[in-house]
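Problem 3 from the worked examples.
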Amino acid sequence: MSDRHHHDHGAGRVHRHPRQPDDPEPRTDHEFLGMALRALLIEKGVYSAEDERARIELLQAATPATGARIVARAWVDDAFRARLLSDPNDAIESLGIDCLHPMIVVENRPDRHNVIVCTLCSCYPRMLLGPQPAWYKSANYRKRVVREPRAVLAEFGTAIPPEVEIRVHDSTAEMRYMVLPRRPEGTEGWDEERLAGLVTRDSLIGVTNPAVP
């Protein structure tokens, strides 16, 4: 298919223009600046339109099942779990998964519960967890989970005992976080596929725990 299409405006006048990505038309100065920067980077050969399209398709195909697979492996393989906590990107990439961003994996323990937020915008390990939920991007969650994490988790149905420390981790454009939840009791002998079915997106963010078998 040609990269260009045309409209016949009558009297032999034909207006030609290039096909555009399936993004909305820019409306603000920032959006116009973003389009100009994109065009310049492609023109300079930093990346191609095909590279951009492939990355967008990769992100659109991402689901929390990827993160669940990582957690399930950590639950059954102590060596992988240690590697995941000490060098997350290396461990994750050993499973054939591309993180796209530097990662930190934080482990829930009997005396500590972790929860993830991005206080500035909505930075998030999309390749591992799929698209951000609307509440993660909301100003209400971003502000309150830092000030009153125990109350926010209670609203998700997650009651954290007073003696358990809650740590809130702030993702940035340079660093993404993922929670390694505690393995539910009663799952001894389960294989990785069955265990992965207990891991939800929200438990990877830390606002809930894995499903109880």
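Problem 4, a separate protein:
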Amino acid sequence: MKIYPHHTNAETAHALIRHIIRLMEEQPDKIFHLAFSGGTTPSLMFDLWANEYRADTAWKRMRIFWVDERCVPADDSDSNYGTMHNLLLSKVPIAEEYIHPICGANDPQAEALRYSNVVRNYVPRSAKGMPAFDMILLGAGDDGHTASIFPGQEYLLSSLLHPYETSFNPYNGQQRVGMTGAALFNAQRLIFFITGKSKQRVIHDIVASGDTCPAAFVAHHARNVELFTDTSACPSE
């Protein structure tokens, strides 16, 4: 695992954007299939990307997917697609046909199956036959959940049948559609973007502990893992 610590949340977001742009520049003829997570942490990154890196990004070579989605309409403030659309996608020259949202307003089970098929149809597959995203951007909750896989739902990490399945937030019962281990562990590159003092325990588990939460398990078992974080999230000695 490669760790990239920065002083502030904003500096971390800037560094991550530049990192993604640089990786794309290194392969100028390649189409990149990227999956993005929701939550509060990437919102700053989306805003910075639209306002400061719009001209530097090869939007025509990006195919946008989502790691997870809350089961709400796209115009709901909880919608991961809605947030990314409002802050970034509506402000940059990327064609609609390159954007593949999870439809949170649909029946969760039906949508998990539909989106699994969308990803199978558009994302190149690995030798194992599963979709292999070029890059997956993950966050983590204070409890160590990631990709809408909460503690107690680790069985989703061992799912080998569908790239996406349903889960639920155990704190409020909200249903979600999220990526399973079948897709997470086939990604070419997996990037965690985790900042803030409340994430110190999660960072500790990812860097120095065992498979104590879903985020730590993914970090320890996926290939080519990178962690972008800030000093407030780094545990004190």
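Solution to problem 4. Helices lie at 9-25, 41-52, 80-87, 108-122, 181-184, 200-208, 214-221. The chain has a mean pLDDT of 96.
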